[in-house]
From TrEMBL:
Biased composition (Low complexity): 43-61
Region (Disordered): 24-66
The protein, known as: Lipoprotein
Top-level taxonomy: Bacteria, Pseudomonadati, Myxococcota, Polyangia, Polyangiales
PROSITE patterns: PROKAR_LIPOPROTEIN (PS51257)
Superkingdom of source: Bacteria
Amino acid sequence: MNPRPLGGVLSRIAATALVLGACAREGQPQPTEGGDPQAPAKATPSAVTATSMTPAASAAPRPAPKELDVEADPVRRELLHAPIKSVALVGWSRPGMFGVTLERRDPPRLAPALLLLALAEHPVAYRGSLAFERLARALGMRVVPAAVLRRIGTGELGALFAGQRDLRDYLSLHAAVQNDGTVDALMFAPGRGDGPGAWASPAGHNVTLDHSLEAETWARWAASPDPLPGERTALLADYVETLVLDYLTGHVLRRAVHFDDVAGAIHLTDNAAAFPSKVDPRALDVLLSRLRPVARFPRGLQQALLALDRDHARDLLASGPFETWLVSPRTLVDLDERRKSLLTLISARVAERGEPAVLSL
């Protein structure tokens, strides 16, 4: 079949927009961590669909994003409130990471979870993972397990580690204790979703994103305008979600994803390197090389990206006092530029083949 000239032009325009969106902008004023999050930042011109209008100032504050309402989600509610019954170190190679057992209330039963304690050496190491989970939830994506920030008292920690003297002594020296006597901890579910499956540790294996048969198969599915024989739509949607999230967050250090062989699903659990303060353009090019050929996207992605304007992203990731921000103002600017570039790519695909064919996963 001969390619249509218009489609080829639009594809080149979309690819160019992605590259431009990834380039560092030399000479522009850079917001700092202490900068005003309300200050306007320059962004790359983009397609009409990617343009967001700044609403006029209003005396009434905007409501908090629904993604911040932990109590509305049953899994995150349990992660935040369920008593911790036991704790075990995952491995000394990850000294702050623990496997825990929670006493769930709805329904009453014991369930596994993972806990990352803040250590003095890296007191805010949880921020990238938590920001990644919030962004995935805002975009309606399924590949990231639920996560919450939970503050645990030193007395509770001492009781949990009472029979593990080495760990107790280590944490007494290295835990990042706040002024109120608590330690920040990222608590996250072992599995994905909001149902019973969230509490089951997935079977399976890790799949490298470069030079593995599985990843090459997924990439071939994603690049095809039409479903291929043997294609698994839900798994393909997981793969595209992975590409989108890593690109938006500048997560250039991911080498592999966990693949659940039984459910045929991807789990993104190693997200600590998301939202770096600076991204090497060459490393970002690797993410772009995976994303540019994608021909089909999840159905609700375009609308979710349009809704994620800079104000929404700031409310989601950097609202409240400075010490509670998960990302810096400069990082929010980078996120917004990549969001607009991705919208340009999707719009070009829709112009080529129509919305039903492109937003079909």
